[in-house]
Amino acid sequence: MAFVTGPDVVAVPKGAGRAPSAVRKAAGALGRLLRAAALRSAALVALLALWETAPRLGLVDATFLPPVSEVATAWWDLLGNGQLGQHTRASLARSFGGFGIAVVIAVPLGLLIGWYRPVAALLGPLLEVFRNTAALALLPVFVLLLGIGETSKVSIVVYACLWPVLLNTISAVGNADPTLVRLARSMDLSTPRLFQKVILPSSVPAIFTGIRLAGAVSILVLVAAEMIGAKAGLGYLINASQYNFAIPQMYAGIITISAVGVAFNQLLVTIERRLSTWRVPA
């Protein structure tokens, strides 16, 4: 049996012609991602560069605003000796605990007040009084009634987080599309099914706006609360560093609080997107 071979016969793998096109598309997508990341981080990089150069050029007093490199070194030292982790865990436990309690209370209460007009009329004046009373103004009251322990700190966080979630939930229920509500009633849906199919889905964006506001408030209020009678926490770290004139450590605590706030907000945004998959993208 004879086999015919020749130099002009070349085996071409199936789909090889599409490989360069796929590589170009992947490279284009990667380039777009890199450009978007560079655009988003440009302002932050500029701020860090200004922070680093301003003290070194004498534009500000380096004693009170040390270069960001010194702050980074202090942050790494606090992380290495375990202090940063200890204070962060203490703050997160208080903040997330108070935040969670506030959400569990505020969302059902907001749905109740927003749906039943008599309940809104009864509790409306009381809500107006307390919503306009700043949480930090009541901090001494919480300390006097509950002491300087964990109870007062978690309670002030609950109080501060309650109002953004509650008010946004009431507004969301009150602004539900009346056409959809009438249509659901015409189909003889029970009240629980009406809430499940119409009220809750349409209220998710507004409720999560309040939840995200409450997440930021939970951290800010806690920092102030930890400056009174606390022995651990990021607020305590900042306050103690100020008194001991450990300025880089103070800024390290502030940066950590900012990072925690950004991460927490991003987590809430991700949860909101998962619960709002029914919405049509703008």
Write the topology of this structure:
Blueprint: H1 19-56, H2 68-80, H3 83-115, H4 117-131, H5 139-146, H6 150-174, H7 178-186, H8 191-226, H9 234-243, H10 247-275
Describe the protein's architecture and organization.
The chain has 282 residues and is mostly helical. The protein has ten helices and no strands. Helix 2 packs across helix 10, helix 3 runs antiparallel to helix 8 and helix 9 runs antiparallel to helix 10 (247-275).
What separation lies between the terminal Cα atoms? 69 Å
Mean pLDDT: 81
Strands, count? 0
* SSE order: HHHHHHHHHH
Number of helices: 10
What Rg, in angstroms, do the CA atoms define? 28 Å
Low-confidence stretches: none
The profile of the biggest β sheet is: none
Strand content: under 5%
Keywords:
flat, single chain, 10 helices, 282 residues, mainly alpha
